[in-house]
Specification:
It is built from seven helices and three strands. The longest helix is centred in the C-terminal third of the chain and has 19 residues. Helix 6 crosses helix 7. It is mostly helical. Helices cover 52% and strands 11% of the residues. It has two domains: 100 residues, DnaA, N-terminal domain (GMP Synthetase, Chain A, domain 3, 2-Layer Sandwich); 35 residues, no CATH class.
Length: 161
């Protein structure tokens, strides 16, 4: 097997795997749960300034902060946030502690992520009626209902600018 040199090309999968391992341990579902509960535990808008990036073997969660002011603010709210996380996660021992560090590069990269799409409103009665008329020939009632809803969503989408 040929030894890979530092300048040899590396696959994107290998690079992403290395980057992911830098922030979390394999199988760390607690960190995933903490990230999911973070907004509720800290309040809306806090993700723009502080975000959990890793969890130690001892259970201490490291939180990247946008600057030292936010790190200090979060440190002052440590007990409150730990209590909220324990309440939300339903396990008082899931997070052994919180550690706040200045890591503005992490926050900046998160801000560059694509925002989640807001689902469109459900189809109106007119679109549902047109879809039902178009799917009357389908004999299977379950399939007919699925196709009717898909057609109604499609008709509603065509009306939007």
């Amino acid at each position: 097997m040929r030894r890979r040199h530092r300048r040899d090309p590396v696959g994107i999968g290998d690079m992403l795997g290395r980057a992911t391992r830098a922030f979390t341990r394999a199988g760390d579902s607690v960190l995933t749960s903490v990230r999911a509960a973070w907004t509720e535990a800290t309040g809306p808008g806090m993700v723009d300034h502080a975000y959990p990036i890793r969890r130690s073997r001892a259970g201490v969660v490291t939180v990247a902060c946008a600057d030292s002011v936010w790190a200090h603010e979060m440190d002052m709210r440590r007990d409150e946030i730990e209590a909220r996380l324990a309440e939300i996660l339903g396990d008082s021992e899931a997070v052994a502690g919180l550690r706040f560090v200045v890591a503005d590069h992490v926050i900046a990269s998160m801000a560059a992520e694509v925002p989640r799409r807001v689902p469109p409103p459900p189809p109106g009665p007119e679109a549902m009626e047109r879809a039902r008329a178009a799917t009357d020939d389908i004999e299977d009632p379950v399939l007919r209902e699925i196709v009717t809803h898909a057609a109604a969503w499609s008709l509603e989408r065509d009306k939007r600018p």
